[in-house]
Amino acid sequence: MMLLPIIFCLLVVQFCEVSNAGVTSRYVRKLEASVDMPKQCFPPPPGFNAPEQVHITQGDHVGRSMIISWVTPIHHSPNVVAYWEAAAAGGHHGHKHKVHAKTTTYRYYNYSSGFIHHATIRRLKYDTKYFYQLGKHDVSRRFSFRTPPKVGPDVPYTFGVIGDLGQTYDSNQTFEHYVSNPKGQAVLFVGDLSYADNHPFHDNERWDIWGRFVEKSTAYQPWIWAPGNHELDYAPEIEEYMPFKPYMHRYHVPYKASKSTSPLWYSIKRASTYIIVLSSYSAYGKYTPQYKWLEQELAKVNRSETPWLIVLVHSPWYNSNTYHYMEGESMRVMFESWFVKYKVDLVFAGHVHSYERTERVSNIQYNITNGLSMPVKDASAPVYITIGDGGNIEGLASSFTEPQPSYSAFREASFGHAILEVKNRTHAFYTWHRNQDNEATAADSTWFYNRYWYPHEEPK
């Protein structure tokens, strides 16, 4: 009879272990091919040499500058951006300032780019709406943006989070869902933009198409860019030996403001956040430029000024999908102990074309000889979020490993985007919106507690 209580206890323990496991969503997306939209869906704007592919990003370290980028297809001029403060605009009668752009072009195999312009507007006021105008006469185009609030510890701010977007019909659904969400003020983009390299000879016209596709957002709010593997465009078979050539010509970032030596890794402050962008496809071993830069960068973050420390990287460090499994492992081994030491709050990654959110775990005890090589709960560790689910041409990554590992809190093979609402120095609310039946459905949501100011366990 003594066996019955023992068996009962074992069953209770087993049930408790199962009930504490993460969630694999029961939602099953219909597995259909992701097909690129035809090029004619996104023609150039009307007018001779009209400015197109307009996009903006933060132009300094603190948010008082904006980089305005655009393409003119035929002539290098006009390469001037006019801008004025909205409150003082008075219709067409506001005082306009002008900034000249730096203009570049490039060739890639049998493709020649248009004239790519980058102009940095400086000394802007915080939390202020500005209009800006490109082109002239009957082909001028007008846009607007709002600068972020002044950097401070309790400044609320809301980010959209998107990865691996591409330009398929699924991409369009993800993008339209984000654009229709009124909360987003800037986008954290974790890499893989146009997927031009999925086409013969890395069809660079697809870069132009993608720039037109996303312009309705990128021209009005800054996208914070991280490079992915589809930005490499390294193709020796067609004698293209310069990695990241189209990406670095088209997408400029303020890397020098954070003393980086490369636009592929850099940092910015925005409201109450400190955002660090890393490159999964650049050298990061000991003594490399990226390694040395990150070592110094993490040490100088002032959490009393910017409580929220967020990292963008393309290849995920924790991933329970068989797709790209463990591709981020060597970078994790190099840097994870630093992330724990400096209490990084969130790490966003792409690359895997599904969605996953982890528990706060680390695997930093392993030192080759001690045999300790399992992730454990760690209150000082980040939450790792894989959001490579924009909807690109390579399709869905639907094969998760089984059983679900203990570090995985929620996972789903779907396309979508996320919204991160930083409320104050201690709390941020996060939602992931799956694309379902033409609606953006909030399928995962949670509160995040700041690791520096409020390092308590978050609700399940």
TrEMBL record:
The keyword Iron applies. It is an enzyme of class 3 (hydrolase). SUPFAM superfamilies: Metallo-dependent phosphatases (SSF56300), Purple acid phosphatase, N-terminal domain (SSF49363). Residues 1-21 form the signal peptide. Residues 381-439 form the Purple acid phosphatase C-terminal domain. Residues 51-147 form the Purple acid phosphatase N-terminal domain. Residues 158-355 form the Calcineurin-like phosphoesterase domain. Keywords: Glycoprotein, Hydrolase, Iron, Metal-binding, Signal, Zinc. Belongs to the metallophosphoesterase superfamily. Purple acid phosphatase family. Homodimer; disulfide-linked. This is Purple acid phosphatase. It comes from Perilla frutescens var. hirtella.
